Amino acid sequence: MWRAFVESDMQQQTLMCSLYCPAFTVFSLTSDSTGGTSQLFHPRSQDVFQNPMCLSLTCVSRASPQDQCDIIEKHTQSGLELVEKYVKFVKERTEVEQNYAKQLRNLSKKYNLKRSSKDEPECRLSSYQSFLDILNETNDYAGQRELIAENMMMNICIDLTKYLQELKQERKTYLMEAKKAQQSLESTFKQLDNSKKRFEREWREAERAAQYAEKTDQDINATKADVEKAKQQAHMRAHVAEECKNDYAAQLQKYNKEQSQFYFNDMPLIFNKLQDLDERRVRKLAQGYILFSDTEKHVMPIIGKCLEGITKAGTNVNEKNDSMVVIEQNKSGFERPGDVEFEDYSQGINRTSSDSSLGTPKGPMDLLGKNRNKNFWLFSKKSKLSPSTLPPFSTPPAPSPANGPSSPKFGRDPLSYCLKEINKTVKPRISSFRTLRRSPTVTEDFSHLPPEQRRKRLQQKLEEICKELQKEVDQSEALGKMKDVYEKNPQMGDPASLASQISQTSQNIERLRGELNKYETWLAEAGGRGETMRYKPQTFNNNGAHDVQSPDGAQSDESTPDSSQAIYAEFDDDFEDDELTAPIGKCTAMYNFPGASEGTIAMQEGEVLAVIEEDKGDGWTRVRRNNGDEGYIPSSYVSISLNK
After folding, report:
1. What pLDDT was estimated at residue 449?
2. Torsion-angle region of residue 384: left (phi > 0), alpha (psi -120 to 50) or beta?
3. Element housing 280 (H / E)
4. Which of 158, 230, 515, 567 is the most exposed place for a label (fewest CB within 10 A)?
5. Model-level pTM?
6. Coil, strand or helix at 13
7. CA-CA distance, 507 to 499, in Å (whole number)?
8. What is the pLDDT of residue 222?
9. Whole-angstrom distance, CA of residue 567 vs CA of residue 408
10. pLDDT value at residue 340
11. Cα separation of 133 and 305, whole Å?
12. Which residues, in sequence order, are bridge partners of residue 49?
């Protein structure tokens, strides 16, 4: 297509040159039979010019092809700059995405609870949990924005930048070829111009020499020698002019040939290559435009899931359940206080009154007037007492009856009796209320908490200890099995190497049992009042047997053997269950195993077995054959695939 630039340019040049020089384009030079003046013929008009000096080479235009090449060079350069501009735009877009994702992550991290705060009571509320879910979804959303930026950088920026460098190098090569062809044509034109000027100069000299010889021949005063000399000079000048004419004609043919090659072959080929380069550049840029959208479309489903997760977090909020959680967390377990007794201070003044009865109050307003300055609010501002002076929560003072004593007996001194009753009933109760807003030192038995909360914390602590104890017992059993296998198969390992681990496990079991007994005792004390919440955990002896506590919280009197000896119990009874354990996966034997020791099972390479129990860290896996045979095999001898 771009070769039309050259063809149209050639047509325009031919038309313009024909107006000024009809002999332009292709010339044929011939010599006459006398060897005299040569003639130049135009192939179309067959016009003959006796004087070839009429040919003006100024009609050959060299600016238009160069102009067309400059236009194409400028166009391709503009296209490459557009690619660079788009790459820069995408890079800045990725920076925006990365900054946005970074700000979202920082925002999520800022409002996310710290690890130390996750145990706070408020974290159990559904509104708090939903807020944490929103923060997590926001963090995931930020990850998707980072993925968009990463994909744009990899698939668009890096790819287009690499392709752009290849296009620049290819374009540079084509332009160098065009420049080289242009320089070659210009060099040939300079040679043509020089030969033309020489031919013109020599022709004029020959013409003057011929005129001088003719003039000398007609001069009667000239000698024969002068005439002969003038003719020889004219003949020599004519011969030189003829040689210059032939050289000029050869240079003209050479230039016309190169010009035709330049306009009809070289430049169209180069322009076609540049056209193909530019079209490939446009096509690649269009793909980059599409990738700009597809990159974000690719993560839209995941972003939609993040937004759905935020919506789900909002629907999971349950205000009623939150209220119940707050009630359960803060329920104190205290009994409600009874009515405040009437305090009659008038008995100390009126000594003549009867000792068997009190003065009748004037009315309810009198009672309020006497107690107006006595604030018994739960969180009233009172002077703080040291923890040692306060009674423990486990044994709070019993409240007085609802209506107080119907007929108190004052004895000899009614005033002393009233003060004594006040000290016994009202003041201890107020002290117990004051402790609710105090922050005493946290104790191991949780006695600083209200009764209900103390029971819950003790029960939670017992569950944690039991889980840890169960873990230690499982490890002890595994070590016992491993030691038994080592004793029966010394080639598999040294039993003495397990002594330190067995000893440490035994110490951990004894320590956890002590803590278990201690917390069980405290739980029994905390459950003595109100609703009894007995915790009956299972304890374990060193043989792996279960000891169930008696209802009163004390352990059974059955003595256990020494822990260092009981750990190595036989594990044959593990296979005597009436009901077969459901397989949790399959395994394929990679090596042969004889199964000579007790509790193991033989297997052949390639045999498929059902996995009954995973490896607990001792290097053995429990398996079962199709015929029901069960036993342990080395975990390193098989390839295990567990059910999902």
Report:
1. 76
2. beta
3. helix 267-315
4. 158
5. 0.50
6. helix
7. 12
8. 80
9. 67
10. 87
11. 13
12. 40
User: Are residues 435 and 453 in contact, defined by beta-carbon separation less than 8 angstroms?
Assistant: no
Rounded to an integer, what distance in angstroms lies between the CA atom of residue 571 and that of residue 620? 13
Half-sphere exposure of 63 (CA within 13 A, CB side): 2
Residue 188 CB neighbour total at 10 angstroms: 18
How is residue 222 written in tokens? 């000239």
Check residue 599 and give its pLDDT.
80
C-alpha pair distances (Å), 265 with each of 174, 251, 272, 358: 14, 20, 11, 136
- How far is it, in rounded angstroms, from Cα 407 to Cα 464? 53
Phi, psi of 375 (to 5 degrees): -95, 115
Residue type, 284: K
Collapse the DSSP code of 538 into the 3-class scheme (helix H, G, I; strand E, B; otherwise coil) and give the result.
Answer: strand
CB 189 within 8 A of CB 63: no
pLDDT on residue 564:
38
HSE of 346, CA atoms in CB hemisphere, 13 A: 14
DSSP for residue 121: G
What is the Cα Rg of the chain in Å? Answer: 57
Low-confidence ranges of the chain (pLDDT < 70): 1-67, 115-119, 348-442, 528-579, 644
Average pLDDT, the chain: 73
Distance CA 232, CA 238 (A): 10
CA distance 407 to 101: 77
Q: Characterize 46-73 residue by residue with b for buried, 16 or more Cβ atoms within 10 angstroms of its Cβ, and e for exposed.
A: eeeeeebeebeeebbeeebbeebbeebb
